[in-house]
Amino acid sequence: MSQLSESTEMYLKAMVELGLNEIVSISRLAERLGVTPVSANEMVRRLGDQGLLTHTPYKGVALTKKGREAACNVVRRQRLWEVFLYEHLHIEWAKLYELACSLEHATAPELTEALATFLGDPKFCPRGNPIPAVDGSFLPLNGKTLSATQVGETLKVLAVNATATDVLKYLQERNVLPGRELTVLEAAPLQGPLTLKVGDKDVALGLSLAEFVIVK
After folding, report:
1. Interior angle at CA 121, CA 116 and CA 126, nearest 5
2. HSE-up of residue 54 (Cα within 13 Å, Cβ side)
3. Between the N and C ends of the chain, which has fewer C-beta atoms within 10 Å?
4. How far apart are CA 140 and CA 129, in angstroms?
5. What is the pLDDT of residue 105?
6. pLDDT along the chain (216 residues), means of 10
7. Phi-psi region for residue 8, left (φ > 0), alpha (ψ -120 to 50) or beta?
8. Whether the Cβ atoms of residue 160 and residue 127 lie closer than 8 Å to each other
């Protein structure tokens, strides 16, 4: 496959982050990328012309086989760099995604695989998300979003799929991190926040933030 532009790679990666096998609305894609729906519509049209996406009117877009392969390649680079930055440069957890984004677009395939070998072929990034294999296959998380849990459940955080540094920082400061155990104490009515017991502290987390936390 020919070299893709950085903007193309960002759109494809966002599709994986929103749901690898899902049909994603253009408005949701635009929100994820911080662009206008008009810009997203134009980019979706271009990606469709390249055979990377299919667009179903009034429903949304989905990755083609070609698009999935390209998207998984981008995500593999991104998450391998996160592992390197965290384990070897000891970069703060909340800053990993943003810094890895600046590296992924300039990483040649040879470097990607050398990096994977150096790191011992890790299966998950520090945010708990699976790193695609060379063939694009994923290990499933088999979890659910924290927003879909019930009061009284005690759960383990599997992954955080947020990408914004301020959101990751907020979760980090409240110890809502992969591997941590938490208990849902209360769910406020009318889409109000969840109250969680994390360690010895009570933590309030809005449902929109709880959507980013995958638990089991």
Report:
1. 90
2. 10
3. N
4. 9
5. 86
6. 82 87 89 92 95 92 93 95 98 97 91 97 96 88 92 97 94 97 94 94 95 95
7. alpha
8. yes
Among candidate residues 27, 169, 15, 30, the one with its CA nearest the CA of residue 97: 169
CA 57 to chain centre: 25
162, two tokens:
């947020």
CA distance 167 to 147: 16
E strand or H helix that includes residue 87: helix 65-87
Q: What is the C-alpha to C-alpha distance for residues 148 and 210, in angstroms, rounded to an integer?
A: 9
Q: What is the pTM of this model?
A: 0.88
Token pair listed for 158:
């599997």
Angle between helix axes 65-87 and 96-104 (nearest 10 degrees) is 120
Q: Which domains does the chain have, with CATH numbers?
A: 6-67 (1.10.10.10), 144-215 (2.30.30.90)
